[in-house]
Amino acid sequence: MKLNDDYLKQVCLPVPQGDDVSDTIKGMLALCYGDEGEQAGLGLAANQAGLTQRIIVVSHGLLSDGLINPVIEKYRGGIYKSKEGCLSFPGEQAVVMRHKIVKVSWFNSNWEAQTRTFRGLLAAIIQHEVDHLDGISIFDRQKLGVVERRG
Fold it and tell me: What is the side-by-side order of every strand in the sheet holding 113-119?
């Protein structure tokens, strides 16, 4: 992916209820790993893979799964500066503001509704990937200098 990649600027569309996206999720998780099987990224949004669906994958700690139609419901715990990289911009980083705690709702690949609260790095990863789904990169977020409170 490149900085001017048109997919990165697109707002992704919700996945219709019941669509089978399990292969898409598996493929996206595979993209988080390099050719040697080393983890290259902690998460990925569908538009980074050239898709326009509201799907993110997260691969960190105990969470290695796809989140279909994720919605950040609530922000808590204050804000902090986060130095982030991105698979779409290899070797580049930006300092962005992130919320410490987020409550997220989504569907898993079996279309079961999920809700969970994430803290720290997992919260930052999810905010980063949901930003991508909204057409916002780390450089856009850095320019904004503030965090949007949607919940």
Answer: 43-45, 55-60, 63-85, 93-107, 113-119
Architecture of domain 6-144: Alpha-Beta Complex (3.90)
What are the residue boundaries of the structural domains of the chain, listed by start?
6-144
Residue closest to 122 by CA, chosen among 53, 68, 67 = 67
Nearest in space to 100 (alpha carbons), one of 124, 116, 83:
124
> Rounded to whole angstroms, what are the CA distances from 17 to 13, 87, 110?
12, 28, 10
Mean pLDDT split into 10-residue runs, the chain, 151 residues = 67 96 92 73 91 94 88 94 89 92 96 96 95 93 66 46
Alpha carbon of residue 122 to chain centroid: 10
Which residues are identified as catalytic? Answer: 129
